[in-house]
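Appendix C. Worked example: SGNH hydrolase-type esterase domain-containing protein
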Amino acid sequence: MIKLGTNDFQSTHTNEAWMSAQGVAKLISVTRNSPIEPGMPIPEILVVAPPWITNPMGSIASKFKGAESRYVGLPEELEKVTSELGMLFYDSNKSVCASAVDGIHLDQIQHRVLGMAIAAEVVSWDVLM
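Step 2, the predicted output written as structure tokens:
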């Protein structure tokens, strides 16, 4: 599973959604081309779009200044990349939202909710057999 993207929007970067999705595409390529044991299949890769960045606050507010506007469109861009590359995709925004504490991360309960939602999706995809 690849669930990355949020840190691409820190204020030290100028990335927008398309650029972040291209970085994930590169990680998919690296994963697919990594050496594996002879006879082993290339593993399925699930890309998970991180939750919307809402209002960065607290000690990380400066670090993510303007991130919410640069994040716009990330789930859609990740879905395009995964579709083009034949990967599995899940948008975490279907089941969770960013923490009310910092506007970026998931709270403990949200991690559990997301894990259960992804597990249900993966079972329905029938890719484990």
